[in-house]
Amino acid sequence: MKELTDGTKMMLKKVNPTNVFFSDGIEAVDEKQVGYFDFKSAAMDEFIYQLMFFFEFGGRTIIGTFNCSYREYADWRDFVFQVIRTIRVIREEDREEKEL
Question: Which residues contact 52 (CB under 8 A, 6 or more apart)?
């Protein structure tokens, strides 16, 4: 996950060197490694706060994003991380047990 997170971040830096990156890392969420980073980018008439996160599921990469006006990011950032921390993997055997 670190390689994917770092690679995506580097690509975004190359595409737009004016992006300002804040934090990045890997969090363990329900036994999954979730990579993330957040940054500020320019839009037509204001700056945008963006957060991207990644995890593997069933052999595929899941990519999630959040964005809002940079003016509002302080109101949303912690909430978005709370949402990411609610990711749960429902395994087939767990689903079957609940149905019994």
Answer: 8, 36, 37, 38, 63, 64, 65
Residue 72: count other Cβ atoms within 10 Å of its Cβ.
Answer: 10
Mean pLDDT of the chain: 90
Contact status, residue 56 vs residue 86, Cβ threshold 8 Å? no
pTM listed for this prediction = 0.83
What DSSP line would sit under 77-98, residue for residue?
HHHHHHHHTT-----HHHHHHH
Average pLDDT score over residue span 39-61: 93
Do the beta carbons of residue 50 and residue 38 sit within 8 Å? Answer: yes
> For residues 65 and 76, what is the distance between their CA atoms, to the nearest angstrom?
13
Whole-number Cα distances in Å, 25 to 5, 52, 69, 91: 8, 11, 23, 26
Closest by CA to 51, choosing from 17, 91, 5, 93, is: 5
